[in-house]
Amino acid sequence: MMKLFTSLLGAILTLQPACDQKNPRVVAEEDETTIYIGKQAVLTYVHKETLPPAGVDTIYKRSAYIHPLYSPGGERLTRIQPADHWHHYGIWNPWTRTHFGEHKVDFWNLAERQGTVRFAEYLEKIQLDNQAGFRVRQEHIYFLEDGSEGVAMDEIWMITVQNLPGHAYLVDLHTTLSTALETGITLEAYRYGGGLGYRATEKWDPSNASVLTSEGKNWSEADATRARWVIIEGESSVEEGRSGILFMSHPDNQAHPEPMRMWPPDTNDGKENVFFEFCPIRHQEWVLEPGKEYIIKYRMVVFDGTMTSQTAEQYWSNFK
Fold it and tell me: What is the CATH number of the domain that holds 118?
């Protein structure tokens, strides 16, 4: 079994791979882009709209999300289109209660038929020493009653991956938001919306998974509190027996330390219910003005084994 990450701190701080580890690489195809380390897929970003299962309203189709995300040992850590919430898509970030002019638009709850988020174009492949990734443009689309639609927000996602020692890798997700609307757009204060949303593997439930925040909150206590980082981990089929993700919010982010939406462990009768979100507008609205860019940055350390709060704090100190 792998020991706790504490023994790796010296190597971690340099963010360099062990000498026998491979550099990440990007494979871009028409429908999706995947980052690999060696032969192991790390994550896939989906360009093509994904339809829900047969018999489910096609309004739930969606593109512009990350799934699957794998642990270094190959454990899938995300899921999409769970039957309890067809609109959940791995790692994604639509905004929920918004308004501009006379329009109110929910980009999150697709069943409201008010809006969605779509992949728009592939911008750039990134390939550096021990870093690989890409930039894409996404659009927050609003629907009108006459069947027409428009673009409320442009969003640039930059996703990069670095290999780390000790069965771990690092994923950076940088988002740049802008709007061409003359009125701008208001992202209203609400418990869901934007930031970084995560729906975990269906394997995890209160019997085999855990949550710890930078402020010492556990799964039952975390919702609506603020944090610099959050560790979510649970049982997996890898040799170490557990896998997880350390989610980090950058100090420059809106409302940092960021509020969270964390489903309590008794959600869905305590079954398959790990949902987490950094939610910068949970307690206060955010107004985006035309002609300006707004940047929010997140970092994820994806690992096999377990992680201590001390190790998480060292990772976060590097994110400054």
Answer: 2.70.98
Strand order in 286-288's β-sheet?
103-105, 98-100, 185-187, 286-288
Region of 249 please: left (phi>0), alpha (psi -120 to 50) or beta. beta
Q: Is 140 helix (H, G, I), strand (E, B) or coil?
A: strand
Nearest to 279, CA basis, from 220, 207, 224: 224
Q: In the block, which residue shows the tokens 């209660």?
A: 97
- Select from 89, 45, 106 the least CA-distant residue to 277: 89
Check if the beta carbon of residue 6 is closer than 8 Å to that of residue 21.
Answer: no
Q: What is the mean pLDDT of the chain?
A: 93
Q: How many CA atoms lie within 13 A of 181 on its CB side?
A: 25
Residue burial 117-134, b: 16+ Cβ < 10 Å; e: rest: bbbbeeeeebeeebbbbb
Residue type, 55: G
What separation in angstroms does the CA of 284 have from each of 55, 116, 155, 189? 38, 23, 21, 5
Range of the domain at 169: 5-14+22-318
pLDDT tens per residue, range 67-120: 999 999 999 999 999 999 999 999 999 999 999 999 999 999 999 999 999 999
Domain count across the chain: 1
Side-chain-side CA neighbours of 272 within 13 Å: the count stands at: 12
Is the pTM higher than 0.70? The answer reads: yes
